[in-house]
Amino acid sequence: MKRTSRDIRTANRYEVLRRIIARSPTSRQELAAATGLSLATVATLVGELLDLRMITEVGFEDSAGGRPRGLVAVHASGGALIGVDIAETYVRVELFDLALNVLARADEDVSPGESLPEQVVGHVAAAVGAVVARAGVGGARVLGVGVSVPGQVDRSTGLAAYAPNWDWHDVPLLDLLTEHITHPLYLDNPLRASAVAELWCGAARGRGDAVVVNLGTGVGAGLVLGGGLHRGVSNSAGEWGHTTIVLDGRPCRCGGRGCVEAYVGASGIMRTLRELGAGSGLLHPGDQTATLAALGRGLRERDPVALAVVRETVRYLAAGIANLVNLFDPEVVVLSSWVAAALGEPLLHEVREAVARHALHRPLAATEIVLSPIPTDPVCLGAATFALEGALRPVGRRTLQRAAPARRL
Amino acid sequence: MKRTSRDIRTANRYEVLRRIIARSPTSRQELAAATGLSLATVATLVGELLDLRMITEVGFEDSAGGRPRGLVAVHASGGALIGVDIAETYVRVELFDLALNVLARADEDVSPGESLPEQVVGHVAAAVGAVVARAGVGGARVLGVGVSVPGQVDRSTGLAAYAPNWDWHDVPLLDLLTEHITHPLYLDNPLRASAVAELWCGAARGRGDAVVVNLGTGVGAGLVLGGGLHRGVSNSAGEWGHTTIVLDGRPCRCGGRGCVEAYVGASGIMRTLRELGAGSGLLHPGDQTATLAALGRGLRERDPVALAVVRETVRYLAAGIANLVNLFDPEVVVLSSWVAAALGEPLLHEVREAVARHALHRPLAATEIVLSPIPTDPVCLGAATFALEGALRPVGRRTLQRAAPARRL
């Protein structure tokens, strides 16, 4: 599983662009200091990015003596990127400029009955078409479309290897999407996408080790380790939702029992609500979004049933997060995705208190637990960066995006 | 938590030496290909290692035309390294040459009453003195002593931050050892040491991602990720023994409940034995070593109580290992330390079967589960490599070994 020198060149080019996007304008000298690459290497990579018109020269730094340093900045209109967040209950698509500003957004609801790949792909195609039209960018400016799909993804074959919500096994999602979308496509899952989003623009910026806890219909942990994404050998790392926390506990949709997801995923929370307060009016049967929104309102209004449901959920969630703290010893744990957003600060408060009862003192003291600070959909943002990464490969076309992926960003 | 260019130089020098030790003789060209470093960088690092007399020139490669390539090999007698494995029930010390052959070994029993740091340090000092005398190497040839101590270790201050077995909190172990041992000292824990041992000489050789499951009095997971050791931000990563697997389950010596260690650590196994078969004659009260040896014999003889105890233990162990597979998606899971050695192949067989009932199909299919193939004490070997790493820093003395450590090997 060694990286080739071509992987390393692509990774370095990507890293330099990432730094420029994170901080524009900047000089080659600053980039060399920030990346640990030599000035000569940085100069070569900056030259390539200038040739691609992804960045531009923007003058010179004020200099206290010595030769003035040339500055470069991201060329925001040098291309467009599309990020697709396929979730169990919705499809969201955002179109970004190269500075990662959102230029257009489209949402489609996915109803519980729509579990066929063709139905989901139809929503994606419609929303992608909508954002291109709304943004008014020419199709030719779109460098690529990053697509996040729940579950496990085989990036080299473009398969949705396993998506428990729809019982998908080895669905050829990339091929299905190709029938509707002509831009280069890059497939991965929301754990990876949300982790990269935090690394580029959120709470993991400048951090070496971060765990991004996704709380949605499915739950999992995106892993930033050693400054890069940890994918694992089969691109399946981070399946925290399917780690056992109560041996022989609640059945989980993965077929196991006592998984974290069975307690803290949206349907696990709805089950707890039914057990603790069916008559409370918070439950919207069959509608996770409405139920979690009602719980969020209930929390803010100190509704006793809402408080009890969240406390019971946090008993499991905090033990699961403490497991991550004890295993990874990260600098930060980020709570992300729509359930975390719906329950917000009150959830964070309960989690912090409860994690302290489980985690070991030393790693706990070294970490902080925060809500994702990203104001838009982190999964769309992260998926868009996968498209950017793909576009930086020497030949950014479909043959290559199916080649063996680099193991770290 | 960025690495400085000095960290990177030290890491590269270490990596080149590691490759030479793994495969001697070898050429600068092979080393460049294996490490991804430029030939010029490799030539510089090889020159430094030659100057340090850690390697030697050993002639030229057979060449099919072209300029013949110079070969280098590790200079086995160019120095000696000592590895110390402080465990809850014993202290083991091994002295190695630079090719990592064991030249001498010494063992000391640590009785349950001996929990004072001074008592443990006394055993270490005696055993270190014994191996130096037995090996017949001059003290001046000893490049350093790597010391593994259970629990959490602060490498920058030399503190044993937390060792639950002896209830140690912030014990200045490095200072205590310095009163007896004049060689440079390097402190870390058995999770890190056994992981590095597998990376250098065992089942993780050539692997990018490996999890080394330590099964002893304490249990934990040494993490090899992206080809290097994952330490975490406070050098506390891998505390798998203190992850919750049964919420509100058995009390654990860490103060928590339902931790993996409470079921699969040596005293957890003894408790299960008491619960399932107190009258069986397998239990040696107060003696973990004798009890586990008896269980190992019982397994091989198909003793029903031994089988029942191991099956019950594996229920928890397999769920815990499946959690690691689902989270890390590693190429290999290695069962290491003395409890794994005592229970051996029958344990491995049960574990493989049971993990398959918990882990997700895709990461499980990509991993293998093996017993550590290292014939000597992996913790001593790994600890010795920490001393080697320390000796490669530009100034290998005590002031420097307390400086901020590199984040990866």
TrEMBL record, chains A, B:
PANTHER family: BIFUNCTIONAL UDP-N-ACETYLGLUCOSAMINE 2-EPIMERASE_N-ACETYLMANNOSAMINE KINASE (PTHR18964:SF149), ROK (REPRESSOR, ORF, KINASE) FAMILY (PTHR18964). It comes from the Bacteria. Gene3D superfamilies: 3.30.420.40, Winged helix-like DNA-binding domain superfamily/Winged helix DNA-binding domain. Pfam families: ROK (PF00480). SUPFAM superfamilies: Actin-like ATPase domain, Winged helix' DNA-binding domain. Belongs to the ROK (NagC/XylR) family. It comes from Streptomyces galbus. InterPro entries: ATPase_NBD, ROK, ROK_cs, WH-like_DNA-bd_sf, WH_DNA-bd_sf. This is ROK family protein. Transmembrane segments: none annotated.
